[in-house]
Amino acid sequence: MKNFLIIGMAAALATACGTDNQSLSTLHNTDGIYKAEAVISEVTKVEATNGGFNPQYAAIVVEGQVMIGSNRCDARGVELAVEQTVENDKIILSVHTLTPSQNLNRICTREFMPQYATFSEVVRFDTAVITDVVLKNVETQGNDVSYKAFLSNEEASETVITKVAVKSVNGGINPNYASLVVSGMVTLGSNPCVADGVKVQLTEKVVGNTLFVIALSKTPADHQNRICTMEYNPISAKVKTTVQYDRTVIKNVIIKNVNEQGNDVDALELVGGIR
Fold first, then answer.
1. At a CB cut-off of 8 Å and minimum separation 6, what does 28 contact?
2. Phi and psi (nearest 5°) for 31?
């Protein structure tokens, strides 16, 4: 049995990063709007919240981001719809892109500067009826993941990034925009056992007129109970992101915790070099 529950609209808040998007030729056209099931490129938050007065009810907040276009021109006018449907004893949460029909005739460059939109959805359910909430197409099409997998993870924490390299790339048609490719290495753990299951990424945070690039590490909840040897055989992972910003708004781009905690470095000082 499949019952339609909710469609939640999320405003398209563009930030820079990228994964695959679905071509317009595969979309379903309704009143000039082309709808396609999207890939959730990153689940940024899954958190339990107040389910209401009835103790039998539970609720979770799900937040994430979806690529809405390969560049700003391609992404213009695209919005997100979040849908909840019931299949047997599960709620299926899926995100769709809503693309205006005029995008089919828009002439855009082939510049690859992916644009993202963010979404936030509250899922409320009767625990006597619903046993799970499943997020569709996480990171890739067909990869459906239980919300419990995200609740089991600890909060991400800032970590040190080494071998940092910064490259200036084309910021696009608007001369006010600039783009930097930031890459480096992050240690997952002191040996393979300690590093197992640890995830790292580069993220962005704007404070005033400063954009911070921050390496984050997320450790599995069972990490505290894991029994590992004291072998020192550090495991590292490469991290990379493209930072796009408006130079009339952002005056500084700072990379946090370069080589050691608290050592924040101006990204422009690293262009063309490695630190």
1. 34, 35, 36
2. 55, 45
Identify whether the C-beta of residue 253 lies closer than 8 Å to the C-beta of residue 266: yes
Taking the CB of residue 13, how many other CB atoms lie within 10 A of it?
Answer: 13
Rounded CA-CA distance 270/168 in Å is: 10
CB-based contacts of 207: which residues, under 8 Å, 6+ apart? none
Residues 80, 12: Cα–Cα separation, whole Å:
7
DSSP string of 68-102, one letter each residue: EESSHHHHTT-EEEEEEEEETTEEEEEEEEEEEGG
- The residue with tokens 């050691």 is 260
In this structure, are residues 74 and 114 in contact, taking their beta carbons and an 8 Å threshold? no
pTM above 0.90, yes or no: no
Beta bridge partners of 124: 59
Q: pLDDT (tens digit, 9 = 90+) per residue, 84-94?
A: 999 999 999 99
What does the CA dihedral 221, 225, 226, 227 come to, rounded to 10 degrees? Answer: 170
Predicted pLDDT of residue 20:
38
220, pLDDT greater than 90: no
Q: What gap in Å lies between CA 24 and CA 99, rounded to an integer?
A: 8
